[in-house]
Amino acid sequence: MSPMLKRALCVSLVLTPALLSSTTAIATVTQFEGQNDWVMNKETSDERFKVLQKQMRGFDMTMFETGARFNTFYFALKNQNYDMATYQWKKIKKTIVNGTERRPARKANADAMFINSQWKMMQAAIDSKDDAKIWETYETTKAVCNACHVAEKVPFVKVVDPQYPMMPVQ
């Protein structure tokens, strides 16, 4: 072992107990530097939570993710990949449920029009693997989504059949 490595080891053995027992030393050790520490460099937990809340945004991000998943869901149905369709359908539900936690004012319509009704009908159609039933229920689902958008005062958001897959999956 080199003399420099021995010295560093000795210093660390001597300083470690002191660092662990000192709250000011711990605070110094946990300081963050650089632009990538934009959350941890906030002084208080409240400030950290506020910056995270701001980044998570509102129901717009919920709908953005839902739209991306709906695109993959649609092409999974077209390709009769029912496992992928089920996977995306369950993720859509989770995304909307999580979104209503961030924006509780959206919960009543999301639950009544989708989570507690149409979501279950679409899942049952997928489970049946009956293409006629799937596509009939899919059309109803689109109509329910658009009705919810009207109820939530965003009627300009219209769900239509995707023309191209967003993701390189079938």
Quick overview:
The protein is mainly α and 170 residues long. It has helices at residues 3-21, 23-29, 45-56, 59-78, 82-102, 107-128, 131-151.
Overall SS class: mainly alpha
Q: Roughly what is the average pLDDT, rounded to an integer?
A: 86
Give the SSE order as H and E letters. HHHHHHH
Counting structural domains, the number is 2
| Main sheet makeup | none
Distance between the termini: 57 Å
CATH class of the largest domain: Mainly Alpha
Helix content: over 70%
Rg over CA atoms: 25 Å
Known CATH architecture of the largest domain: Up-down Bundle
**Beta-strand segment tally:** 0
Low-confidence stretches: 22-29
CATH topology of the largest domain: Four Helix Bundle (Hemerythrin (Met), subunit A)
Q: What would the principal axes of the Cα set say about the shape? A: globular
Number of helical segments with 4 or more residues: 7
Q: What amount of the residues lies in strands?
A: under 5%
Task: Fill in the keyword field for this structure.
170 residues; mainly alpha; Four Helix Bundle (Hemerythrin (Met), subunit A); 72% helix; globular; signal
